Amino acid sequence: MADTPRVTVSPGQERVGRHAAVVYSDDRQWAAHLCAFVRDGLDRDEQIRYFADATEPARVLHTLTEAGIDAAGAVRRGQLAVSTAAQTYLAGGGFDPDQVIALWYEAVAEASAQGFRALRAIGEMSWGARDVAGADRLLEYELRMHHEVFERLPLTAWCFYDRRPMPKEGVDVLAGAHLTHRGTCREDVAPRLALRVAPLAGSSGFLLSGSAGHESRHVVAAAAAAVTNAPDARVELDLSALRHLDAASLLTLAEASDRRPGNVPLRIREAPATVRRLLDLFPELSSSVEVVGR
Fold first, then answer.
1. Are 47 and 150 in the same domain?
2. Are 148 and 230 members of one domain?
């Protein structure tokens, strides 16, 4: 996707936060978020898609109708469509972040061709808690979406995370990979996590906070995959909120940098003392990792 031209996005859209994690724990909260999102999309003349998983598609439409929204009319004119995760995220029997990212580009192009100003979508992510092929790459996907999709396309998407079927820490890690949170907030999430990774808002890269070690190796692996696929030539890791990073985690990130085209080192900003000591011990990593700042 690196050669895809960027699409101008209005400042208003950016302020709202177009890629949001919506965390809820009961049906009332689910319905409130759903109706607010759809009403806003209808008012903005945007196409709206809902990708259901735990919820029956008919229930989505019924809930909107009960709230006074003309869901049937929106469906008839092609402005609203409800499908399932099996038809979208899991098409082909498993989850592949590359395929799903490509689908977003196709969906935005289709919405534009049909005359809508932009696309907005809700995706239920509860399938990530099941034994689904590729579900272990969901965190990688959430981290990649900001730079690979939302910086480039007129798309607003809310990822619906229902706490009831999903492990608490898993939800918090996935919610933390978004810049915007609804139903929970960044301050609520970060202190409870061993390691949290989120996109950087102002440049291509990621903020790591907490402690990166053996117990958080799956989070480091997801961050490394996001680094490898980041579309910009230079990628930065902000470690200002990181307490510790072990040798295995540093090697994983350095190898991710080596897999990128162009031989441009991964920039590490405000590295903690543990990282600086590791780089002194392993000078061969200097071609993969460049420390900047203090």
1. yes
2. no
User: 165 in a domain, yes or no?
Assistant: yes
Which residues, other chains included, contact 274 with Cβ-Cβ below 8 Å and sequence gap of 6+?
244, 245, 246
CB 21 within 8 A of CB 175: yes
Residue ranges making up the domain that contains 227: 194-294
User: Which helix H or strand E contains 206, and what residues bound it?
Assistant: strand 205-212
H-run or E-run covering 221: helix 217-229
Are 48 and 155 members of one domain? yes
Cα torsion angle, 161, 181, 9, 1, sign = negative
d(CA 32, CA 49): 17
The model's pTM is 0.90
1 within some domain: no
106 vs 261 pLDDT, higher one: 106
pLDDT tens per residue across span 195-233: 999 999 888 999 999 999 999 999 999 999 999 999 999
- At which residue do the structure tokens 């961050």 appear? 223
In sequence order, which residues have a C-beta less than 8 Å from that of residue 262 and are 6 or more positions away? 233
Q: What are 140-154's pLDDT values in tens digits?
A: 999 999 999 999 999
**Mean of the per-residue pLDDT values of the chain:** 91
Number of domains in the chain: 2
Q: Is residue 151 within 8 Å of residue 145, measured between CB atoms?
A: no
pLDDT band at 184 (very low <50, low <70, confident <90, very high): low
Q: DSSP 3-state assignment of 199?
A: strand
Residue 5 covered by a domain = no
Task: Report yes or no: 118 and 155 within 8 Å, Cβ to Cβ.
Answer: yes
